[in-house]
């Protein structure tokens, strides 16, 4: 039986490949709403940001260690380790790098909120810090006794790379936060007016027997006419179909019992005033 079933499945097009593709499509339909969940986006973005920033900080520290030695050699000159200037020269480059990193971190925070620094000294300070580091690393390599093209290129490129990494790290943090906030904003979406306004209390349930409106008032008679006014026949109000059917059954039951159909029978079916019951009774008696 198995070969015949296999051939039948192939004849209908339900092969193993079709079943596998169907399973993948069903899985994709379930994964799509999960992949768009803002919390999942925030977690994945935070994990990627942390991994990227840690790696950049590691290489930034390596570059700063190299530029620090170049700045120290430039400032210390012929001083030995017993001279305080030799030790103080080690703190200059970390101070410059720390100032640059603090400025760029603050810039990342305000950029994440869509605010620009907007001051000419902001860019000037960053350029001064980069320029001094670059100058103190390159000038000693230009001395004829120490000149080497490879050493000059390294002392020229590494400060620029360090400055670029210091610029990129805050931008990564700002853009990561922007992606997270954009995901939450798209998930919330614009609220409709019905969602933002209070719908108010719900109306009370309507009774089984609907309320019957009051009968229309009789038309006033003309004062100039000598002919006596004849009151028009009061017509009963328009009633729902199920109420009319109940009144007709009450009328037929009164006829079967051999008694007349009275307004009191109308009031047993629907609770209305006497005048309205009389008008309904008149309508049922004439129809």
Automatic annotation (TrEMBL):
Residues 212-226 have a biased composition (Pro residues). It comes from the Bacteria. The keyword Membrane applies. Residues 188-229 are annotated as: Disordered. The chain crosses the membrane at residues 54-75, 95-115, 127-143, 149-172. Keywords: Membrane, Transmembrane, Transmembrane helix. This is DUF2637 domain-containing protein. It comes from Saccharopolyspora gregorii. The lineage of its organism: Bacteria, Bacillati, Actinomycetota, Actinomycetes, Pseudonocardiales.
């Amino acid at each position: 039986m198995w070969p015949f079933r296999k051939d039948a499945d192939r004849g209908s097009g339900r092969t193993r490949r079709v079943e596998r593709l169907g399973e993948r499509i069903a899985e994709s339909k379930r994964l799509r709403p999960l992949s768009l969940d803002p919390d999942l986006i925030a977690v994945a973005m935070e994990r990627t940001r942390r991994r990227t920033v840690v790696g950049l900080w590691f290489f930034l520290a390596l570059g700063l260690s190299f530029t620090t030695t170049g700045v120290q050699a430039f400032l210390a000159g012929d001083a030995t380790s017993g001279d305080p200037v030799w030790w103080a020269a080690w703190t200059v480059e970390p101070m410059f790098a720390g100032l640059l990193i603090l400025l760029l971190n603050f810039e990342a925070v305000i950029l994440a909120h869509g605010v620009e620094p907007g001051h000419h000294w902001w860019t000037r300070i960053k350029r001064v810090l980069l320029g001094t580091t670059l100058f103190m690393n390159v000038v000693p390599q230009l001395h004829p006794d120490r000149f080497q093209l490879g050493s000059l290129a390294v002392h020229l490129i590494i400060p620029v790379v360090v400055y670029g990494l210091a610029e990129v790290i805050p931008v990564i943090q700002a853009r990561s936060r922007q992606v997270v906030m954009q995901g939450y904003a798209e998930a919330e979406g614009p609220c409709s007016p019905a969602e933002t306004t209070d719908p108010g209390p719900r109306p009370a349930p309507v009774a089984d027997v609907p309320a019957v409106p009051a009968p229309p008032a009789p038309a006033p008679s003309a004062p100039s006419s000598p002919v006596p006014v004849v009151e028009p026949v009061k017509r009963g109000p328009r009633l729902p179909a199920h109420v009319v059917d109940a009144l007709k059954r009450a009328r037929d039951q009164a006829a079967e019992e051999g008694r007349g159909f009275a307004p009191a029978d109308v009031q047993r079916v629907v609770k209305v005033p006497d005048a309205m019951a009389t008008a309904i009774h008149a309508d049922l008696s004439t129809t």
